[in-house]
Amino acid sequence: MTPEPGETTALAERIKARIRAAGPISVADYMAICLGDPEQGYYMRRDPLGLAGDFITAPEVSQMFGEIVGLWLAHMWEAAGRPSPFALIELGPGRGTLMRDALRATRIVPGFLDTARLNLVETSPVLRARQREALAAVGRQPTWHGSVDTLPDMPTFLIANEFFDALPIRQYERRDGAWVERMVGLDDDGGLAFGLGAGRLAATDTPVAVDGAGNGAVLEMAPAATAIVSRIAARLRDRGGAALIIDYGYARAATGDTLQAVRRHAFADIFTTPGEVDLTAHVNFEALAAAIRTEGAVAHGPIEQGPFLMQLGLAERAHKLAAGRDDDTRTTIREAVERLVGPEEMGQLFKVLAATPAGKSAPPFDSATLAPQDR
């Protein structure tokens, strides 16, 4: 969406006032304020999903996505020896659609739902209300958490779909052989704008893959994401379980400015209407995998979402759902499959990374596969 001339928000004015009083802020601080401000943050006051919102996630495209994820978690639970009780966790559950579909699909797995303790990490009061409604439809009442720090200490089976892309990032720009932190300040007209600060990225923190980058190159770091992944990996190492991370991003560290704003299903200006647009950045899966390994757990992948879903039986599930249905329904199912796995849709840009304790395998990252329709 193209912002209208002169359009602004109350949050924009508050951010400008803070910068005038105390100086420029990091990109990470800017993202955190825009998305999570208790009074005017983007996620605090709205349901951003669906055609009437700003974007659509895979669970909203088709029930098949949540079903496959749910059965993957149930398979990993069985492979872990059916621990009881265990924590079934979702980070950033949106409207609760994925978990609702996952719970419905796993009813056929004996013991899984009986021993699951459902925990959702969600800060938005609006979305918590949506999740409550969705999960009431399958007879479940979750426990909500504001962060991963308060999750119960037990075997963990976790899903995070489009969660890490919304976590704050830091940006650095290459200048004369150094990585200088990019900041958000004010331009000559008093508007929000990028500038460079005094901070420098230590050479030991720079990925080898970006050696030799020229002036003007942008490097993104996501300390909040790696910190959360490290906590998850430590839980898996100590208590057992499995985690599945699905998001859009890149498999190997690289330079590039991926910070973006979305409003009403179109790209928007990052600075014009803070609090009214979704801010995200592509996920560095190499960094997440490294954090998992550092904690003594195993990182599987990443692989692209398309092959992940197809190897776990998406085509077979779609065929079963379409059997005996009318032409319009079959078309809807076929279009959903294309959107989930097509290389020009979600299938290639979105990646999937799994984490397990040492010595555990995870389909389809190894030779084993799980076909939902056979469960």
Task: Write up this protein.
The structure is a single chain. The chain is of the alpha/beta class. The chain has helices at residues 10-22, 27-36, 58-61, 63-79, 97-105, 112-115, 125-136, 223-239, 285-294, 305-311, 314-322, 327-341, and strands at 25-26, 86-91, 116-121, 143-145, 156-161, 170-175, 178-186, 192-200, 218-221, 241-250, 260-263, 266-268, 278-280, 283-284, 298-304, 350-356. The strands form 3 sheets. Strands 2, 3, 4, 5, 10, 14, 15 and 16 form an 8-stranded mixed sheet that branches. Strands 1, 6, 7, 8 and 9 form a 5-stranded antiparallel sheet that branches. A 3-stranded antiparallel sheet has the order 12-11-13. The longest helix has 17 residues, at 63-79. It is globular, with a radius of gyration of 21 Å.
